[in-house]
Specification:
alpha/beta, 205 residues, globular, 6 helices, single chain, eight-stranded mixed β-sheet
């Protein structure tokens, strides 16, 4: 489903709950890829079986075939009308995304009245520049927030996180990088790493 926004047309791909839905989770993608990311695919495959409808949201720049993500304000402009469209379903609405998509969800959660925010691979800082922290975005969601962070994420490891308020929970994905890929030599498999993600999200929801 295409949705007009000030930044162009965004696309929603719905993965409906298998039975009576009890919540809706909207997920945005990162700046370096789309909704085919392994963590987004895993959540869209698992959550509907537990009563959670998942909406994968493609930003207008991806729908238009562009290679480079625009500025944060443009990303927010491409997200807000989509969530307004989804909010009409009358279900508790959770916002989330991976990397840049997580930042968008954090920045807009308050204005959209989100029940919670799921931050996948939140880019706590640019690689190699821990002094340029983006923690304020994460801390200012104003609602329940779950952060899933790879143990090897160059954009910030769990050990680099500041103290989080009681509303926030941080879960480490062992050996995962920024895309939650794990090395072949790691003592956990790629499938097990994705199961950490889906189990943590189900428990949180």
């Amino acid at each position: 489903m295409l949705v007009p926004t000030p930044a162009g047309e965004a696309r929603i791909t719905l993965h409906p709950a298998a039975a009576q839905p009890r919540a809706l989770l909207a997920l945005g993608h990162g700046a370096g890829g789309g909704v085919e990311a392994r963590d987004l695919r895993a959540l869209a495959a698992v959550l509907p079986g537990h009563g959670i409808t998942v909406a994968l949201v493609e930003q207008p720049w991806r729908v238009a075939g562009k290679k480079v993500a625009p500025a944060p304000k443009t990303l927010d402009a491409g997200w807000l009308p989509v969530i307004a469209e989804l909010g009409g379903q009358g279900l508790p609405l959770y916002l989330g995304g991976r990397s840049a998509g997580a930042r968008v969800a954090c920045r807009t959660a308050g204005a959209l009245g989100a029940a919670g925010v799921l931050a996948l691979a939140f880019p706590l800082h640019p690689p190699g520049k821990p002094e340029k922290s983006r923690a304020d975005e994460l801390l200012s969601t104003g609602c329940r927030t779950l952060v899933l962070q790879g143990g090897r994420d160059a954009f910030g490891t769990p050990a680099e996180y500041p103290a989080l308020p009681d509303t926030h929970r941080l879960v480490e994905v062992p050996y995962g990088d920024h895309g939650f890929a794990v090395p072949k030599r790691a003592p956990v498999s790629q499938e097990e790493a994705l199961e950490v993600i889906t189990a943590a999200v189900l428990d949180w929801l």
